[in-house]
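Re: the request from the purification team.
They wanted to know what the chain is likely to look like in 3D before they choose a buffer screen. I agreed to run a prediction and write the result into the notebook, where they can find it.
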Amino acid sequence: MVLLATALITACTVGPNYQRPQVAVPETFSRATAAGPSDAELASWWSAFGDPELDTLVQRTLAQNLDLEAAAARIREARAQETVAGAAALPQVDAQGSVTHQRISENAIPIPPGAGGQQSSAFGLPGSEFTTWRAGFDASWEIDLFGKTRRSVEAAKARTQAAIWNRRDLQVTAAAEVANAYLTLRTLQARIANAEDDVASEQRSQQLVAARVRGGLVTGQDLAQQSSATAAATATIPALRAQAEAQIHAIALLTGQAPEALDAELAQAKALPSPPAVPAGVPSELLRRRPDIRAAERQLAASTADIGVAVADLYPRFSLTAAPALVSTALASLLEWGSRSFSLGAAVDWPLFAGGRTRGNIAVANARQQQALVAYRKSVLSALQDVEDALSRIQGDRGQLASLKRAVGDAGRAEDIAAARYHGGLVTYSDVLLARGRRLSLEEQMIDAQGAQARDTASLFKALGGGWPELAQGVSQ
């Protein structure tokens, strides 16, 4: 009997039942052929760079980032909203107690002739005073016959799940941001080291040119040109150091610390870590791994349940009420059996005309559900674009690095030839400076390209949905 009643109530749940939409994705990425990394590898992808400092910074970020703390609070809020939504399905009981002292006006309407003493006791004679004591309960229960509360709970649970996935998406973003800032820092420090080597080289060259000037072998023009080159090389360092300090401050903020907290830890230059090779896998895996897609899908589920909440307002609402109490004009007799008082009731409330408000709310809910569906489809397409873009950039980085390595080698040899010809009196010192400038520029470009490849690799890991720790346990709720 209970099962039959439950089945009848469930069958009356109005509104559409949610079904996860099917979104077509390509079978492979355009620039990927190998199988993708495992869930465990993606969960802590930063370890593939082989840099313990990077591992430590990411772990600090996941544990201390302030945006993640705020996201955790939003999850607690969403779970509390589940409780609020579910409360409507339960009886509501209020305990009440009161004491009232009353005096009947002497000029009040007189008691009708023939009225019994019970009426005199209840209402009192003109000019009389009495105190009424009351203690009891008020209980009400609205029967969820058409599923409005059940749909509300369904929507609240879906929003809680969306909040969980949003936090995981923030974990993915935070891990990628701290890695990007760290790799940028190491790139800048490599450029600073390269610039300092250039300054030392320019200073040695300036000493040699000065000696040649003193010996009368060259004019002061060569010394002025070399002095200018030394000053120009020195001038690049302060700006690079300022940029490096800004990256350290950004990393500190991502880890939930004051900007200067990591100055001593990160100021020491270290080599830029080499990026690992990352097979992208298949696009269908993004639907499971990308937290932003999962969050969008849960928002769609919540919006679908909201339609049922709005549709339920077209149907009648049934409620039961009860108000047992003890009422007496004397506190001493309040707990006696004769002081009992109660009322029982059943009511139906069926809105017949609301000026189109109910139908309008249903239209609003349907429109929001369509918006959520579009947002879900867009999140899938954006995820595919993120992976394709990262793969394209990495491929471009590899080609650029290969060309720059050859160019740097050729520029170094050209500089050596120009220096030898200058010492032989065959070319001017401007030719030496020009060849050196080309080499220095190409070296800076190569360092920047190495940093870009490392950062683009981190972007690919992010695009694949890596960086939330629960991925390693195969969480797919």
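For the purification team: The chain has a mean pLDDT of 87.
Please add any questions underneath this entry.
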